[in-house]
Amino acid sequence: MCCFYRFFVFLASLMAGNAAWAQAPNYKNVGRAPTPDEIRAWDTAVGPAGKELPPGNGTAKEGAEIFAEKCVVCHGTAGEGSQMAPRLVGGRGTLTSPQPVLTIGSYWAFATTIFDFIYKAMPRGQEGSLKSGQAYALTAFLLYKNEIIKETDIIDAKTLPAIKMPNREGFIPPQLEDIHDIKKRGCRLGHCP
Amino acid sequence: MNSKKSGRRQFLKNSAALAGLAAGAMTPAGATPPASETVEQLHAYGQRSHFESWTRKGKHLWPPEGQSGTRDYGFRNPIQYQLGMITPAALHFTISHGHEPRDIDPAQHRLLIHGMVDRPLIFSLDELKRLPSVSRFHFVECNANSGPTGPTGAARRAPTATAQDTHGLTSCSLWTGVPLSLLLQQAGVQKSATWMIAEGADPPHHLKSIPIEKGMDDCLVAYGQNGEAVRPEQGYPLRLIVAGWEGINNVKWLRRIKLVDQPYMDMRESTKYPSLRLDGKARWFQFELGPKSVITRPSGGQQMAGPGYYEISGLAWSGGGAIRRVEISIDNGKTWNEAQLQDPVARKAHTRFVFPWEWNGEEVVLQSRSTDERDEVQPTRDEISRIWHIGEDYYNTSTNLIGHFNAIQPWKISRDGSVLNVLFL
User: Fold this and answer.
1) Pick from A64, A87, A75: which is nearest to A122 by CA?
2) Rounded to two decimals, what is the model's pTM?
3) CA B299, CA B418: separation in Å to the nearest integer?
4) Which of A11, A137, B231, B342 has its CA 20 to 30 A from that of A170?
5) B residues 71-110 closer than 8 Å to A (CB)
6) Smallest Cβ distance to B199: which of A45, A177, A187?
7) Taking CB atoms and an 8 Å limit, are A31 and B122 in contact across chains?
């Protein structure tokens, strides 16, 4: 009886065609559903749409104080960089030179990247120690020093993703949706500039 | 000193001497028994002979507080002394962007898969090990490996550069783990998901955006490397292996994969890894590494013993698949002869090649050129210069990093038997 049943199932799966064969076996007792809290705790990386941006806000003025306290050791008093850390300010108009100066103002395509990296990865050795307001303020300070916003502009979850960075059109392909499309990338594979 | 301990040591020495006598004193000249205190260790977890001294080379990216120092870009694998196509895990190159290996308790570690999926899932390491597993040979290579410009360009261009200096940012392992596609199928990827982001448990939470097509293709959630657990500096207990793509994709200490509908523009992927061209436009998300090869013996810094027979050997690899052919030139690139590929020849893995050769003692330039399964051929430096529209001086003067630089590597053997890097001579 048992064997006959198995044979029946086998036949049924044959008749269901290729789709049935492609089905992965059922491993559903391996691994479990995460709780909403577990997802929330880790779901912090911020994409260009800014959906994951936390509450809080800051201005360049507030950011200047935090920068002086926590960032100048490596990035220099004016964000000019050092052996330890890259330059953050200036460099516009240098991208076509043999010594391009790649900074937030001259190069970076998305303002969300600034907040995301500061909030999760700065300062080195104390990663994750900044409050969201401090990270917004530092973001505002760097945008202001790169002449992208005004000193009094408030940066928060709503204003940050709306900022258009000066070099946003400086990348190939310009549309993110086109990255998958080999033709629009203009280059089949890796080793072309 | 603890007298009890030294007494025991003496006993072990005596025992060893007795054992030598009992074996008929067959010890060849120059062979002495290892220090007795290391014998037990060698039996428990073996070490290489102390006569083998080759190590990774590099400096910590982040000097201790109060000390100045230059940023180094990774610990390079001594590839010129590698035997076979596998890199010992202890010598696998490392770049963690300055962050030290984490001390992660595997019992506490979790992998979360969520975002645009029907069933978010969280796995412990034990659970992952219950799932169907595969073992595959894959190289991991930094996109800056063998690059002639940027922070490590000068060391790479130097005539005295060794293969470790020029090509030490690639390594190959047998990786064991669960195919990522299996985990994604279990979670049920929604149609709207076009990308995934992979994130590490390291404090800065290194993140990489990867098109979903690759995630469903040949990515591996690896817990094994060359038969043992992935090393801490390689991502213990879990590392994402993204076969054939820039090293940055192979996220260490993997804790999370989120299915999304656009790349997340992490700092490194969006500002450090695009290739900035001379026209000021930068190509981002290049992913795949082209065909490359390097002769490791003889190679830069080595010394020939005199004219006579030598086997030329080296490694070839491509992100495009399996290596189909490696050719050797011993006349400055005028003619090329096919080398023998040694098994295993695996897709997106180092492949070892050998070529019998007799050195007549005259000056000679040796080069290798690889072709992959898509018939893509490793270019010369001049061909790359033409693609980039750059002249000779650009390599010496520009601070711009040329990634994906896979030029044919020439080594010159002088009459005195010394071997020099002549890519820029």
Assistant:
1) A75
2) 0.89
3) 9
4) A137
5) 71, 98
6) A45
7) yes
